[in-house]
Amino acid sequence: MPATLSTRHPIVGSAARGDRLMSDSESDAQYFQNVVAEIEAEAKRRSTAGEYPRALLRSLEEEFRRWVPDATLENGVEDTIRGIEAASYIEPAVPIASRTKVGRLVKWWVRRLTFFYHRHITQQITALGIHITRPLRLLDASLKGIDRRLAKLEDQLDVGANIRSELLASLPIFSECPEFREPIREHLRDADGRTLLGDLTDLGLYQFLREERLNVYGVSSAGSDTDASDVRSEDLFTHLGHLDSRVLGGFVLCGIAGRYTANEQLRLLQLLLLRSTPGAKVAVVVPDPEKWLSQVGPVAADLLQGRPLHPDTWAYLLTREHAVDVKSIRSADSSSHLVMATLK
């Protein structure tokens, strides 16, 4: 019986075993890729959280990439150079193996008579490979030198997210002014499309606008858990980088005081303008710089990443981008300003 089974469908059985082996191989490769992805994700999370110094994480990453097979990683210029060098070397002595002695003899004579021609061609190809890899080697060495210098500079400037969080934990942080909710609602009522609220530090404004049935969603980089169904917990720059052009019907900037440098605030405005449609509604909630400094104190002002731009500066920037109906509202206690405009 076993003999009958083994000889009845030999081809099908062989194919089935081959498919099974191929499936097992693919499964192992997929599992290995998943493990590598998990390790890299965990390393990125810990690096972002600041649990370990950057120098330690960098050395661990270099050691990790040393032992991971090249096929699973993009090792940059070094692998490209090695590939070019390997491909540029060609053996001029062609094989002469044959099933018959006559065939082997014929191939031997052909190889001997044409060897000078093959060697001449292969020498030119090898020389070309050398000339190509030489500047690549110089470029690779230069990039590695720059990377080492940047790594040293980064280590000197690195404070660590945990240390920074501890320093800022007890400092008062500016929050949105509740009295601006009604003017913002009126301003966004005619928005044609979704309106982005960011960078949210609390959900008060978001919940108010959602209750008014406005088409809004939020982005918060604070990393705190929230039950809100349409608040994205991610960096605002990252979120805007994933959006297509002209998809936003408006945007409300709030909670950026002390969290973004002046250059980052300008970049943020440019990204939002690129992602907004003509006629989009714009609102910027910004604290008065002098009031903000008196509220948070000199320690927080020095330790926070950036200081708020003056409301007149926001009005100027929006006017420069050909926005219309630019106006500014001051809160009752003069601590905050609301700058509103409509894009052309």
Question: Could you give a short description of this structure?
Answer:
This protein has 344 residues and is an alpha/beta fold.
Task: Give the SSE map.
Elements lengths: L1 H7 L1 H40 L4 H14 L9 H12 L12 H57 L3 H8 L12 H8 L5 E5 L5 H8 L4 E5 L10 E3 L2 H7 L5 E6 L8 H14 E12 L1 H15 L7 H10 L3 E7 L5 E7 L2
Parallel strand pairs: 1-2, 1-4, 2-3, 4-5
Antiparallel strand pairs: 5-7, 6-7
Helix pairs in contact: 4-5, 9-10
Plain-language structure description:
The protein has 344 residues and is α/β, with parallel strands linked by helices. It has 12 helices and 7 strands. The protein has helices spanning 2-8, 10-49, 54-67, 77-88, 101-157, 161-168, 181-188, 204-211, 236-242, 262-275, 289-303, 311-320, and strands at 194-198, 216-220, 231-233, 248-253, 276-287, 324-330, 336-342. The chain has a 7-stranded mixed sheet, sandwiched between helices. The longest helix is centred in the middle third of the chain and has 57 residues, at 101-157. The termini are far apart. Residues 1-22 have low confidence and may be disordered.
